[in-house]
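Summary: Need help interpreting a holo structure output

Steps to reproduce:
1. Submit the protein chain below together with the SMILES for S-adenosylmethionine.
2. Request a joint structure prediction with the ligand placed.
3. Inspect the C-alpha cell block that comes back.

Expected: a single structure record containing both the chain and the bound molecule.
Actual: see attached output.

Input attached:
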Amino acid sequence: MTFSGHRARKRFGQHWLTDPQILDRIVAAADLHGADHVLEVGPGRGALTERLLASPVASLLAVELDRDLVVGLRQQFGADGRFSLIEGDVLELALPCPERPMPTKVVANIPYNITGPLLEVLVGRLGRPAPCRFERLVLLVQQEVGQRIRARPGSSAFSALSVRMQLLARCSSVCTVPPRCFSPPPKVTSEVIVIEPVPPESLPPLAQALAVERLLTRCFAGRRKMLRTTLAGLLPAPALLELAAAAGVDLQQRPQELAPAQWLALATGLNRSSSAESGGA
Ligand SMILES: C[S@@+](CC[C@H](N)C(=O)[O-])C[C@H]1O[C@@H](n2cnc3c(N)ncnc32)[C@H](O)[C@@H]1O
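--- attached output ---
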C-alpha cells in the first residue's frame, strides 16, 4: 500500500478529501483541456491528483510539503510523463519553475492554515498582483473564507479581503463541503470556490491600486465607524464631501457598505487630491 503507515498530520492541515462527488465537482469546475498546465498545492495521498491526471491536461505540477508522502506520490503517479512533483513549501515556490511550463490553472484542496499567504502568492494584492496570471483557480477553502472572498457590500462577511479579491478577480462558489466529506473531518464546513483573475489590462493602475490598499487598511481598522470619521483629516471637510459625492459615496456609510468600484473611485480621487496638494502630477 503506497501510503500505509502514514498518519494525517494536523500541522500540515491534512484532511483527505474522500467524497467522490466533491472530487468530481472540483475537477469539473476547473474545465480542463489538453492545453492546460495545472498546479496542485498539497496532493496529499493523491485523491485529486488521480482525477486531474485522468483529464486531458498537458502537465500537472504538484507541490507537497510532507516528505513522507513524496515517495508514495512518485510511486503512484511517476510513470505518467505529465506528472512532476516538488517536495517543499508552496509559499516559497518561484514561478515559473525552470524547465517547466507556466501553469495555466491551480486546482487544490488547500491546507487552511496557509490560506491568507497562499492567496497572496497565487492571486496577489492590489498594486502587487501575482506574477503568474492563472486563468482560473479552483480551491477548496474554509467556508468562512469563501464567504468573505465573494461577499457583497452590506453583508457582515464583507471585508478588505472581499474588496481586494473582487478587484483582482471574479470569484464564485461551486458548492459547500461538509466535514463528513473528509478523513479526518475538519471542525468547520468548507467550500469550493472559483477565482478567475482579471486580465492585466483590467487591473487598476499601480498608483490607484496602492491607494485602495492604503484606504482599506485605514477604514477597515475602524469598520464600525462612519467614513466621515475615518477619513477626517485627509482633506478639508468640503473637499472630502465633494470627492465622496463624485465617487458615489455617502460619508455616513461604514466601510462594509461600499462596493469595490466605489473604493476605487474614492481612492483615485483622494490620490489625485493629495498629489495636487503636494504639487505632483
Ligand atoms: C487538506 S490536505 C489535501 C490533500 C489532498 N489534496 C486531498 O484532497 O485529499 C492539504 C495538503 O497540503 C500539504 N501542505 C501543507 N502545507 C503545505 C505547504 N506549505 N506547501 C505545500 N503543501 C503543503 C499537506 O501535507 C497536505 O497534503
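--- end attachment ---

Reviewer comment: Residues 12-17, 41-44, 47-48, 63-66, 89-91, 109, 111, 114 surround S-adenosylmethionine (CB under 6 Å). The chain has a mean pLDDT of 94.
Status: needs-info
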